[in-house]
Specification:
Shape: globular
Largest sheet: 6 strands, mixed, barrel
Number of helices: 24
Structural class: alpha+beta
Strand content: 15-25%
Radius of gyration: 37 Å
Number of domains: 4
Helix content: 40-55%
Strand order of the largest sheet: 3-4-9-6-8-7
């Protein structure tokens, strides 16, 4: 038993060390035990074993370190001996590893990092559903009842978008995004202010004694110089004094604000009056969030909330339509839409890494064929297979680690590019950076790569080292090596084909979307946002406030139209394709519904005159809205073609009346029909659309986007329009100045991002596959140079030699193409959610991918084939 234990301990030592000294060490150990005469106590025996084990472990560490140092020096000399091969392998690995690490950093920062809230897994977004299962926001009175009745939720809060203009402090007016939140919002999220406190219950009541606000850390530092004395101090917000209650922690990013409301720098209490017209159950404009109670799950909460909505429908049957509830994890709300895109891109870079490793394996196979006699000589001199394996694995590991180091630098640069150019739809992308996790991923990928590309040449060298000294084994070795190379080439072509098909489908889909007419002309149009602040424009049903807002926009637009190069200027509350939603129920006069909630809904656009001209929306029938549609005149509206055809299938819509909102709302006579506008996305079907004059809306519309059409570059009028707004009212800042084409492009940001990156991966994989094919065939021709020379000497035509070599190279390429297309056909279903009017098994895409691959492979094979046909038989035979 002692002998077996000692021999097991010796296995820690290197193989050659054991071969030289194991017998002596065993003899010494037996002698020590024998000299003790068996009189050792148990404690002394334990000390002897401990000392022996320590000596073996210390020697093992020293010997392994020495061997590793020698192997590393030898590997460095070997790699330096062939700089071209080494640099090619390093560049290939760096590209594959760098792309993977960069994509890992993006996925880690966007998908895997926890939300910036306490116990975020227990946070849910709550939506109201109707009979059709469509989800919507919630009205204030419904939220009030949910908060009072729900037991599966620890806390419930609502949010609404707002804005603010900061005045005073001797500084220029500053427009900032803001939110209105109900009491308990920050407690629900688990966020505590760095300074001050959050809203109290009394401060969330209508008519509270004072106006209060909470600042973001960034606003506190930029506007107020990080002065802690700002707590309790009044600040001027849109002409109204607000007391600062608190400052949120530095680095805190409220994703609710960032993803749903374009960010927030100020937070105000909701302060709704239950009797206000906008607090009704059918005024579904509030976002509801909750924290699950201990022991409650999402399904349980959803069932309870649905039962509460059903009870509310029984109590108020004309204000709900088959009411139900939907409880969605907060992470899914923010990250769910982008998860398929990022996972698809990660799969793409993993394929790219496999191609890179395959190419490096091909390069090492070439190097292995050159080192075969060296390995055979070392074997003949007594070097064991294990020792050879260790040396060769050290070379592969060293190559992979250096490639991983360079790849980390590539990843650092790639992450910076992705962060700078990535779409706005990717949450938290701006915070993505290389960290310890990403560096760990680079190390893991380097080690995995070493194993992946090091095994093939290792088997080739060590497995055949016994008979490589004789020339008899060369032909067999050459044929075996070619089979391995051809398998690697076929795999590369298959992976390239898979990526080509996937990127081709995305390109066709994106091209189709870009060719889709949005229903308006965004070229040469500038957009500018204005949100009026101040008591004169306060939102309400006061006719003076409506008139004040109308006068402001009319004056600004009149001056803008007078600018040189401006052909039309208007304003709209919700800019098409900019992400805004403003839905209202539609009620046709004379067609009442038993339950008003069953009425269809449509998008409402409050516009100024020249809106249709400014965006190039065609008038189909009737007239457009003009300056005559003023306050006090007969209320009018313009509808789109889809609404006219769907709600008036057999009669003329002109002259009919409709109401927006409740059936009791003011009736508006339809005076015109315009073309459809794709408002919610180029890939989203057109819905019902209603346009009403700004001067005739029930409230003062203070937030509007100017749309200015020009003859030349629209950016040239940005500064003059800012000056116009400053002259009309210096307290009103202009924000979000963009060309309309940029807005349309941003609506396709995620699709464009995925398409561009996958195309880049496909092009890189194809290039690597062609380089691998070219290199493998070139080596094959070099190894058979004498045979080809003999064939030419015996009269074989050059064309026959070219066909021979072309056939040799195209066979693995065609096999790889077939495999790649088969894998693509089985896997492209994952792209379904990213495609628009393109089938996943689109024949044209598959055919084009096959043609590109075959043509590229033929080109890669032609040069070695042409060189083979130019071999000089006489020179070859003399060399032989």
């Amino acid at each position: 038993m002692r002998e077996l234990l000692f021999r097991s301990l010796l296995l820690l030592l290197p193989e050659e060390f054991r071969a030289a000294y194991a017998r002596d060490m065993q003899a010494t150990f037996r002698a020590e035990l024998r000299d003790a005469g068996g009189a050792l106590s148990a404690a002394a025996t334990a000390r002897l074993w401990a000392a022996t084990a320590w000596d073996v472990v210390r020697a093992a560490f020293s010997e392994h370190a020495d061997i590793l140092a020698r192997d590393t020096r030898y590997a460095l000399r070997t790699l330096r001996a062939r700089p071209a091969h080494t640099l090619t392998a390093l560049a290939t690995l760096a590209l594959g590893i760098g792309a993977n690490v960069a994509m890992f950093a993006v996925i880690d920062g966007v998908l895997l990092a926890p939300l910036p809230y306490r116990d975020p897994a227990r946070l849910v977004a709550i939506a109201e559903t109707n009979r059709s299962g469509e989800a919507s926001n919630v009205g204030y009175l419904s939220f009030r009842d949910l908060r009072a009745r729900a037991r599966s939720l620890d806390a419930v809060a609502v949010t609404s978008q707002s804005t603010a203009t900061l005045l005073g402090d001797g500084r220029e007016a500053q427009r900032v995004n803001a939110m209105r939140v109900s009491r308990g919002y920050f407690e629900m999220l688990g966020v505590r202010p760095a300074l001050g406190r959050v809203f109290s219950e009394a401060e969330d009541e209508p008519g509270a004694a004072r106006r209060v606000a909470i600042l973001s850390d960034r606003l506190w530092r930029d506007r107020f110089g990080a002065d802690p004395r700002v707590i309790g101090r009044p600040i001027d917000v849109s002409g109204i004094a607000h007391q600062v209650l608190g400052v949120l922690p530095r680095g805190f990013e409220d994703l609710v604000a960032g993803r749903l409301y374009e960010g927030a720098e100020l937070w105000f209490p909701l302060g709704y009056d239950e009797a206000a017209s906008f607090a009704c159950r059918t005024c579904r404009h509030l976002r509801v969030f909750g924290r699950l109670a201990p022991g409650a799950g999402e399904a349980e909460a959803e069932r309870e909330l649905a039962s509460i909505f059903r009870a509310l429908e029984a109590e108020h049957p004309t204000e709900y339509d088959g009411a139900g509830a939907q409880a969605t994890p907060l992470a899914e709300v923010f990250l769910g839409p982008v998860r398929p895109v990022l996972l698809l891109l990660w799969a793409g870079v993993l394929v790219l890494l496999v191609v890179a490793c395959s190419n490096v394996a091909n390069l090492l196979l070439l190097r292995a064929s050159e080192r075969s006699r060296e390995v055979a000589v070392r074997t003949a001199l007594g070097v064991t297979a294990g020792r050879l394996t260790r040396q060769l694995l050290t070379e592969s590991l060293l190559l992979a680690l250096v490639g991983g180091l360079v790849g980390t630098l590539v990843a650092w640069a790639a992450v910076r590019v992705l962060v700078a150019t990535g779409p706005e739809q990717l949450p938290r992308l701006a915070d993505v950076a290389l960290d310890a996790r990403a560096v760990g991923a680079a190390l893991a990928l380097s080690l995995a790569s070493a194993a992946l590309f090091g095994l093939v040449p290792l088997r080739q060298l060590v497995g055949r080292s016994g008979h490589l000294l004789s020339g008899a084994g060369r032909r067999t070795e050459s044929q075996s090596t070619w089979r391995i190379r051809s398998l690697l080439v076929a795999g590369n072509v298959a992976m390239a084909g898979l990526l080509l098909v996937g990127s081709g489908l995305l390109v066709r889909s994106l091209a189709g979307l870009l060719a889709t007419a949005p229903g308006f002309d965004p070229t040469r149009v500038l957009t500018l946002q204005i949100w009026l602040g101040g008591e004169a424009y306060r939102r309400g049903e006061d006719g003076d406030q409506i008139a004040a807002a109308t006068r402001f926009y009319d004056e600004v637009l009149a001056r803008a139209r007078a600018l040189p190069g401006v052909t039309a200027a208007a304003a709209v509350t919700t800019l098409p394709l900019a992400g805004g939603v403003d839905g209202y129920g539609l009620h046709i006069a004379g067609r009442p519904y038993a339950n008003p909630e069953q009425a269809p809904s449509g998008d409402r656009f409050v516009v100024t005159p020249q809106f249709f001209t400014a965006l190039g929306i065609p008038l189909l029938r009737g007239r457009m809205l003009d300056a005559g549609d003023a306050q006090g005149r007969a209320a009018v509206a313009v509808v789109n073609r889809t609404l006219a055809e769907a709600l008036f299938p057999s009669e003329d819509p002109l002259g009919h009346e409709l109401s927006l909102g409740p059936p009791t709302a003011a009736k508006r006579r339809i005076v015109g029909i315009v073309g459809d506008v794709r408002h919610h996305g180029l890939d989203v079907p057109v819905g019902y659309q209603v346009y009403v004059p700004q001067a005739q809306w029930a409230w003062a519309e203070t937030f509007m986007t100017l749309v200015v059409r020009t003859r030349g570059d629209p950016a040239a009028v940005a500064a003059p329009i800012r000056e116009i707004v400053r002259n009309v009212d210096p307290a009103q800042p202009v924000t979000r100045v963009r060309r309309y084409q940029e807005v349309v492009g941003a609506s396709l940001g995620t699709r464009r991002f995925a398409t561009v990156l996958l195309c880049a991966f496909a092009a890189t994989a194809l290039t690597m596959a062609l380089i691998g094919l070219y290199g493998a065939l070139g080596v094959y021709v070099g190894q058979r140079r004498q045979e080809i020379g003999v064939r030419l000497a015996l009269g074989a035509p050059a064309a026959a030699i070219r066909r021979l070599v072309l056939g040799q190279g195209m066979r693995p390429a065609v096999a790889g193409l077939a495999a790649g297309l088969l894998v693509a056909a089985l896997s492209v279903g994952v792209l379904r959610t990213l495609l628009h009017e393109v089938r996943t098994l689109d024949p044209g895409t598959f055919v084009v991918a096959a043609i590109v691959l075959l043509a590229s492979a033929s080109a890669a094979c032609f040069v070695p084939a042409w060189r083979a046909s130019r071999i000089d038989p006489a020179a070859t035979l003399r060399t032989e």
